């Protein structure tokens, strides 16, 4: 029974992409509920200028709260050195630096050329090595499968940037389907090469569901050994600098898929679905997505480790006719 890490990115990727700003108190309650459901890693915020993303202005306070949760791996996104310094001081366990495979997206997202961004990553790694050893640095490879601004992205282009990041000294390189371009064959090819060429620096997968391929891409990545997947509760999220991009894959649906396939996530789906109540309260009127919250768990479902869910009722047909 293989364990899979589901990394919840809703408090960062999700909240930074909605117009409303969730009050800090609701963020803290949400994190508490996610931890209670068994989530072991949460990207709790982004250390970025509050003028650009007021939704993330309370990142340090949210990190401080999350660090009080035993066993929780606390992650944050940082776009530059200033953000990295703030995240390191806050005490996060892991930072993710968004590094775009295309220069067009890099200029739109972080306002830096490739050369400038590579130098920024080198400097952040040097600071970590000098003063904050023990904190993991991931290069999150934005638009690794295709770019809404620049168009198709080849595997060679993505691997070229992956090697540059590894040379800069990051601990992990994780491809992100920022724009929803990925399809299963491409996912298998890219992660096969990433594992072959980067070894233990090959990181997890970050898929968006823009074109409905998110869970199909998860299965493809599982086939070639990926063991960490980012997801967002309710499917909220989407890069504001990737035109047309929609939310991440839905955490609730991802956990069900993995457990139904025999992978152990350690997450209780009933408690996970219950956590959506906090999202609805903290983001009134915001659309949430997911099939499991609507349909429920099928009759006879059991977790990979043998646990039985608290509620084991299938969705019912109310039309009087079933096919």
State the shape.
globular
Major sheet summary line: 8 strands, parallel, barrel
Number of strands: 10
At CATH level 2, the architecture is Alpha-Beta Barrel
Amount of helix = 25-40%
Model regions low in confidence, pLDDT < 50 over at least 5 residues = 312-323
Show the helix and strand layout.
Blueprint: E1 5-8, H1 10-14, H2 24-36, E2 41-46, H3 59-66, E3 73-77, H4 81-90, E4 94-100, H5 103-109, H6 114-131, E5 136-142, E6 146-147, E7 151-152, H7 155-168, E8 172-177, H8 184-198, E9 205-207, H9 214-223, E10 228-231, H10 251-260, H11 269-274, H12 276-282, H13 292-295
Parallel strand pairs: 1-2, 1-10, 2-3, 3-4, 4-5, 5-8, 8-9, 9-10
Antiparallel strand pairs: 6-7
Helix pairs in contact: 2-3, 2-12, 4-6, 7-8, 8-9
Write structural notes for this entry:
The structure is a single chain. The chain is α/β, with parallel strands linked by helices and 323 residues long. The chain has one domain: TIM Barrel, CATH 3.20.20.70. Helices cover 39% and strands 14% of the residues. The chain has 13 helices and ten strands. The strands form two sheets. The chain has an eight-stranded parallel β-barrel with strand order 1-2-3-4-5-8-9-10, surrounded by seven helices. The protein has a two-stranded antiparallel sheet with strand order 6-7. Helix 4 links the parallel strand 3 and strand 4. The longest helix has 18 residues. The chain is globular. The C terminus is likely disordered.
